[in-house]
Amino acid sequence: MQPLIDHARGFAGAVAGRRDEFARLGDGQKPEALFISCSDSRVMPALITGAQPGQLFELRNAGNIVPPHRSDASCAVAGTVEFAVRALGVSDIVVCGHSHCGAVQGLLNQSGLSVMPQVRRWLTQAGHGTGHSEVDLDAAVMRHVRTQLDHVRTHPCVVEGVAAGTLRLHAWFYRVTTGEVLANEPGTPNFLPL
Ligand SMILES: [Zn+2]
User: Fold this and answer.
1) DSSP character for 116?
2) pLDDT digits (tens, 9 = 90+) for 99-129
3) 132: annotated active-site residue
4) Is 38 a catalytic residue?
5) Which spans in the chain are helix H?
6) Which of 84, 101, 114, 145 has a CA positioned 20 to 30 A from the CA of residue 33?
7) Mapping DSSP to helix (H, G, I), strand (E, B) and coil, where does residue 145 land?
8) Which residues belong to the annotated binding site?
9) Domain ranges of the chain
10) For domain 29-193, is the CATH number 2.60.40.1470?
């Protein structure tokens, strides 16, 4: 932890040369996209996309799970999606899964979740669970990402944005060992190089 603290301690000094750019961030934010990804430490949206401060509105949780819309739910994910679309007016939503994802692994094999009841309960929001015979974790993640994007589509603000042509949706797969990014070909299960 100490190297992280040291870096944070020196951060303001390190960006002193970008003072005007940082000062303008105080005027508000107009991010280009909502980027939904896993909390996994190996996935760094700004590193992958080259995003600068103010460009990406991020939503991260274990397994990049987006529960389907429920009007009576008090849901951090639903609230964040709604804020991004209605208040910030993002034009794009990306759901980005990744290789070696422990959450998707947990969905495939729940035997390791006995000491993590909260994780087990959270994973039930994914909309699919055990019963899939996939031994290829990458394929499971890709299927999982497409399911979460389907869930994104159930949120009323997204329904309206897509219908109006002001909102585009993307399902991505990031390979942590190579940096490759694949994108789902809409209407198919295929993931192709971005
Ligand atoms: Zn993950």
Assistant:
1) -
2) 999 999 998 888 888 899 899 889 888 887 6
3) no
4) yes
5) 2-9, 11-14, 19-24, 45-49, 76-82, 102-108, 117-123, 137-152, 156-164
6) 101
7) helix
8) 38, 40, 98, 101
9) 29-193
10) no
